[in-house]
Write a structure and sequence with these properties.
The protein is of the alpha/beta class and 337 residues long. The protein is built from twelve helices and nine strands. It has one domain: TIM Barrel, CATH 3.20.20.30.
């Protein structure tokens, strides 16, 4: 019998139309407190640069802010884009967060820059070299967080001995090989890049090597989740999500827009088709529908240990309701295992 499935959330700290960046951060805090109240395992915050519709550039600062305004829930990065940062600095930052808040801090690591190439260059690291150095830099971080006996001359103080949990993020099969080889938990970005998800999860599970960090494979899948009292309402709310992905494909990065009764009035047929292809594994509907969608997902992709929900819903009250419905649904499923 499988272990109970955990549920968690990813937030990119989007700016809603009519709001400013401070309001977006306040909404992130309010969401974090709501998720903690409903027993979510963790909230992760993404890293994006030069994105005028998102306030998630200084990820470690936002994680600290969320930790400060919560009490028990894990808070982490989904992820820190390692090509942008020296591993020593990342270890120092997350070691400090662990020192301040205890074992509530996760470090999810990505191998992409999380931005365009011009912006990646402005971040002052060689983005091309950084991608190739990713496996070595993951090893450096694991060493920095390890015991005193494994340290070299350069130490990431106060990270030594903190054992901050490291997760490998991926949107292709490359990171699946690395996570399996290092015996680390694996997080797949199914919310925007589902094309290689099935193959990547299978590779990770098949090639996983037990380690001091993890004895068996641990798979987190990030999915878009929009739940409401009816399928019709959920699909109406999901038009906000479609507009977000269309703006990404356009390269314009528009602020989060309210839902619309007719997507064809704001998006072209091509944009609608491309957005839907990106979000084909979204869980959208009422509890009964989403329960069926989860069953279909697990039948196709195999068991996953945790679903990390991204809910692009314009109305924050309805967004909170969606996360509550998702918690209730997963709890009901777990009771029936």
């Amino acid at each position: 019998m499988p272990n109970p499935m955990k549920y968690s959330a990813l937030n990119l700290v989007p700016i809603r139309k009519g709001n400013n960046d401070k309001e977006a951060i306040d909404q992130m805090v309010s969401l974090a407190q709501h998720l903690e109240q409903h027993h979510y395992e963790r909230l992760w915050i993404a890293e994006h640069h030069n994105a005028p519709n998102l306030v998630s550039s200084a990820t470690a600062l936002l994680i600290q802010h969320a930790l400060h305004h919560t009490n028990t829930m894990r808070i982490g990065s989904g992820g820190i884009m390692l090509p942008n940062h020296a591993p020593l600095v990342v270890a120092e930052q997350f070691g400090t967060l662990n020192t301040l808040y205890g074992d509530r801090v996760d470090l999810g690591l990505g191998r992409a820059p999380g931005t365009d190439m011009a912006t990646a260059s402005a971040l002052r690291r060689d983005q091309h070299q950084g991608v190739y150095q990713f496996p070595d830099e993951v090893q450096q971080l694991l060493q920095y967080f390890g015991p005193e006996t494994k340290q070299g001359y350069v130490k990431a103080i106060p990270a030594v001995g903190k054992n901050v949990p490291v997760y490998i993020l991926g949107s292709s099969t490359d990171s699946a090989h690395l996570a399996a080889r290092e015996g680390l938990p694996y997080v797949f970005a199914g919310h925007f890049a589902p094309q290689q998800m099935q193959e990547a999860i299978a590779i990770y599970k098949e090639l996983f090597e037990p380690s001091e960090y993890l004895k068996a494979p641990y798979v987190i899948v990030c999915l878009n989740v929009i739940m409401a009292d009816s399928d019709e309402e959920a699909h109406y709310l999901s038009t906000t999500q479609s507009q977000i992905f269309a703006s990404i494909l356009r390269g314009r990065m528009a602020q989060m827009q309210p839902p619309t009764d007719d997507l064809s009035q704001v998006l072209s047929p091509r944009e609608i088709a491309m957005a839907e292809a990106r979000i084909q594994n979204s869980l959208i509907g009422d509890k009964a529908s989403v329960n069926q969608q989860i069953n279909a997902f697990l039948h196709k992709y195999g068991w996953v240990d945790e679903i990390m929900a991204v809910s692009y819903i314009y109305d924050t009250t309805l967004q909170h309701r969606s996360y509550r419905y998702f918690q209730e649904l997963i709890d009901e499923r777990n009771q029936n295992l």
